[in-house]
Amino acid sequence: MAKATVNTSAEDRLILTNKNRRWDEVRGRSLVTFCAIIMIAATISVTVFLAQKGLQSFTVNNINPIAYLTSTNWNPVGSGEASYGIFPFIFGSLAVTFLSALVAAPLGIGAAIFMSEISPKFGKKVLQPVIELLVGIPSVVYGFIGLVVLVPLVRDNLPGIGFSLFAGVVVLTVMILPTVTTIATDAMRSLPDSLRQGSMALGATRWQTIRKVLIPAALPSLLTAIVLGMARAFGEALAVQMVIGNSRDIPETIFDTSATLTTIVTLNIGHTTYGSIENNTLWSMGLILLVISFIFIFIVRYLSGRRKV
Fold it and tell me: Fewer Cβ neighbours under 10 Å: the N or C end of the chain?
């Protein structure tokens, strides 16, 4: 009798355990599905809302989209006929983004190679914490340092008034350098040791192995690091706004003042009436920023799909 009771209890416990496992499976799947639905819904909602607001300039206010994108005259509240050409701001955004990436890419990839191949222990114990510290500094701090230190330095030693495209490039280079370095370091460390050992076995030096084997193998990931850095630079507003000068003209030299889409939006959105033409044109700038951000994401996914190692 006692043995039958023990067997029944063990069977009940087994059934109960199976039920608990199924219930845990259902709860876990429901939780992650809910999280995924929230993220998809938030992305679609932001995209639809921004598209609806951004297109009002062309559908409600009848602004010519070609003239809006290509005209160099931005004067929404001046005397006479208002004009809404944003080409100088698109040019400023692309110029400051590509120039900062041009400087940050070799510096970040070089630091990644040093941390992963030349001095891994020193890089892991010293350089990596320093880079992580740079990632955590708020953008307003970068902008404030640029305003107090960099702008006077440029004004005293280089052409121009200090506020310039050059100052914006320097600030953005420092800001995106941790992003490029961190992703590039992970890419180099993820390469299998068999690549290094095989190259060394064939008589190649360490530098030849890095230059002819490791860098080509990690190239798609290194390009991904650069594109993500560019995406960060393109969307930055506050730090750039504090040093770039925020002028409406296309800069003739790198030491002239300029403006970006993000700086114009942050400067003017609080001084416009909701639903006015100028307010709608600022929403259109936000839509352009979103579209270009999607382009950066597609480029990153394309490069990630080309990884072979």
Answer: N
